[in-house]
Specification:
By secondary structure, this protein is mainly alpha-helical. Helix content is 73%, strand content 0%. 6% of the residues are buried.
């Protein structure tokens, strides 16, 4: 049986890339460059994090 803590690695990985994409998106906006692709990547990573957190809540804790 999988525990909820198995998802922590994936959530952390996605969280790291969400922060990177946030910084890149803000930088692209500040320098007046097209940032739509970066913003969509950020949206996709945030939705993936949300989905993983919802899945994690349904799984039991590790014993």
């Amino acid at each position: 049986m999988r525990s909820g803590e198995d998802f922590d690695i994936i959530i952390g990985f996605l969280g790291f890339w969400a922060v990177v994409l946030l910084v890149v998106t803000v930088w692209m906006e500040v320098t007046a460059q097209p940032a739509l692709g970066w913003a969509l990547g950020l949206l996709a990573s945030l939705l993936a994090i949300y989905g993983m957190i919802r899945l994690r809540r349904k799984l039991p804790d590790r014993r």
